[in-house]
Amino acid sequence: MLNPVRLLVSSLAQSTRCCSGYVFRMRFLNSLKQDDEACKAALSHSDLMLFHSLKPLLKKNKDRSFSSVRLQYDDVKSLLQKLGTDLSLIQDSVLIGSSERGTALFCLDLASVDAAAIEEVGGAKFVDLRKSFFLLSDSEAPLVAKAQALLRWHLTHTFCSFSGKSTKRNRAGSHRITEGSEVVHYPQMSPVVIALVHDGSRCLLGRQISFPAGLYSALAGFCDMGETVEEAVRREVAEEVGLEVLSITYSGSQHWPFPNSSFMIGCFASVSPAHSELCIDHSELEDARWFDLAQIQTGLQSSATKKGLPVVTWFPPPHAIAHKLIREWVELQTQAPPPH
Ligand SMILES: NC(=O)C1=CN([C@@H]2O[C@H](COP(=O)(O)OP(=O)(O)OC[C@H]3O[C@@H](n4cnc5c(N)ncnc54)[C@H](O)[C@@H]3O)[C@@H](O)[C@H]2O)C=CC1
Ligand SMILES: [Mg+2]
């Protein structure tokens, strides 16, 4: 009998022969989410990203950069065999991506196996997600964050919140179904607006008491049920710093894994320079300040204060959408005005 994943790859390759590799990849992944048999077959020819208790396995490269460890299915099998572990554990893998040639990428949490033993065999280390996120490259960090978010969602959704019955996942791990029913549960994320407020020549950044010393960021807040993005930005800015937003422009979005899965929606929000006096709600923010271009440029070159040294003002690192909003604002300020 023909392997179901080979069949799927060849029929998709036929039907998408006039399309890009990206189209093939998206359709391949979508099919694996719907077809348990094909997904099971894809797993046995896949690459896997390993986690332990939600910490990704990272290796240090020769150039001192870090990357996540990806092992082939057979290597994971041998690793588990070597450690005397039940091989059926691999079936807990969750689908997170694929190559343009139809090799699926899964992630697997080996929390029930001795972490040190895996680290020794793999020549790598399990690193806390917050640390990993900032050690990894711009292209790898979001994938590792997505994998961890999906693994965490499965770990915390083994029971139906309505009936209390247990839930069972599909092969790809893209949803769970309450046993004996047709109730489907999908991975959850919380929409959060993040706005860089500006008044024409300055931009506004704030800090929560829990932030590391000197760190200032754009204003952020969870969307309330029933709110539009625009309403959430207006409300958060009014609540946190007492300003009325005049207009909002969308900039970009980002999945943010901390503390749980947030879907960050990044915007610029303008306020009138004539009404820019701050009325900070100190239960939400420890401080908020207007920064001019020179102060922002200095802050972008600073990093967290070392122990014992005076506190400097610094901004979120490049992976954070707050950083991207701040950089985009600087670019807008330094661009030559269009000719008349
Ligand atoms: N990627 C980035 O550049 C940045 C990301 N963020 C993220 O934005 C998120 C929201 O920012 P905050 O100012 O803390 O939000 P916030 O101003 O809405 O205040 C947080 C409070 O909102 C309430 N809340 C309402 N819905 C919630 C939900 N679904 N989950 C958790 N709490 C909920 C809780 O009482 C919580 O204490 C944070 O988790 C933070 O990690 C914040 C700044 C920069
Ligand atoms: Mg906030």
TrEMBL record:
Keyword Metal-binding: yes
CDD domains in alphabetical order: NUDIX_NADH_pyrophosphatase_Nudt13
Domain spans labelled Nudix hydrolase: 187-313
Stated name of the protein: NAD(+) diphosphatase
Essential cofactor(s): Mg(2+)
Organism lineage string: Eukaryota, Metazoa, Chordata, Craniata, Vertebrata
Species of origin: Knipowitschia caucasica (Caucasian dwarf goby)
Catalytic activity: NAD(+) + H2O = beta-nicotinamide D-ribonucleotide + AMP + 2 H(+); NADH + H2O = reduced beta-nicotinamide D-ribonucleotide + AMP + 2 H(+); NADPH + H2O = reduced beta-nicotinamide D-ribonucleotide + adenosine 2',5'-bisphosphate + 2 H(+)
Key words of the record: Hydrolase, Magnesium, Metal-binding, NAD
GO MF annotation terms: hydrolase activity; metal ion binding
Name of the top EC class for this enzyme: hydrolase
